[in-house]
Amino acid sequence: MVLAAFVLPRLNLGVAPLIGATPEKYAELAGSAPIHGWWEWHVGAGTLPAIVIGLAAALWGPAIAARVPWRALVPLTWATSCAWAFSLAMIDGWERGFAGRLTTKHEYLRQVPTVGDVSEAVRGFAGRILDYQPDSWITHVSGHPPGALLTFVWLDRIGLGGGAWAGLLCLLVGSSAAAAIVVAVRALADETTARSAAPFVAVAPTAIWVAVSADGYFAGVTAWALALLAVAVRREVGSPVAYAAAAGLLLGWAVYLNYGLVLMGLPAVAVLLAATKRAVALRALAAAVLAALAVVAVFVLAGFWWFDGYHLVQQRYWQGTASSRPFQYWGWANFASVACAVGLAGVVGVARAVDPAALRRRSGLPLVVVGMLAAILCATASMLSKAEVERIWLPFTMWFPAAAALLPPRSHRWWLLCGVVGAVLLNSALVTTW
Fold first, then answer.
1. Distances from the Cα of 214 to the Cαs of 111, 166, 217, 234, 388, in angstroms?
2. What is the pTM of this model?
3. Structural domain of residue 319, as residue ranges?
4. Each residue of 42-90: pLDDT tens digit?
């Protein structure tokens, strides 16, 4: 499938990722389809560190993860993921690979200086979503609820403006998803499985897009939400309701970062289905829903109704490039992008997780992985996700490498090595847009 997605558009057989475009526009938007970017073999300051970090994680990661104290493993996973993502970004160089990525013409930071009164911006947010208006929001701002823009406005207001600080936020929060996933896997399965998953999520190929896109930040928020929910329903903690409420607040905030993250409800339900006690699951559900509704209430009182934004953003979507991206290609090529983003270990791990017997037993990790898979299938069926899903689907796909923990332990080093080599080669052969 991956081979077909890259090769077929170049054989003039009528399989095109973009139609009705000039050669220049085609090169910009589909020249390296199914991955968004452009072909350019290159090395940079991050090449050697990426190779060293990746090889070290592949060769010694499983042994280290099995032996270090649990309290050390979680921050170690986060630190490794952070260093791995930053080194991959630095293959493209400081400005092109990191500091300048969130300052391009379609990104949030271009809109930040135009936001004066935050309350007024939220009240009038929906009215500026459609294109071809004098005051239309730029592409990424219009395509998301106001929470995404507000994040970067608030960052600027506290004196941390500019691309480097915005990139650092995305890097730190996005890479923390690896630690959150390890915490969740421990709650959903057991500590041994979580330790096995740690190297896979720490050096997953998804890191290529984590350091330099707001979707990395979104992924971190949702990963911690599910981790807190998993702890609430599967671990003996002092106040499971408080954990569930915190999860609800993060999930509520996530829906105001990205409209598509309403689909995170599917994995959240999977977590609840994995609960050891029905009563605990019901209490957690109630606490999470009430907390999420509190976030909704704040935005409603501020003047933004989510459903208005969602309906308008669909219109804006079809006003843009989406109308030139045929579903006949992207309906399946999206999954080729996912395969590149999660690596071979992630693909095989998902295949192992789709186990009817394990699902009938309500095994936590397979349930959540299937929930994530169902979410991206729904996103594809909506026809509102065509291209760029290696970035857009990060909140879902970052969980797939964790499923590689279900593979035979003696094979882990080889699967890790496959992922590391694939990520470095992909990042070196392509300059990804994010």
1. 14, 9, 5, 30, 13
2. 0.96
3. 2-403+410-432
4. 999 999 999 999 999 999 999 999 999 999 999 999 999 999 999 999 9
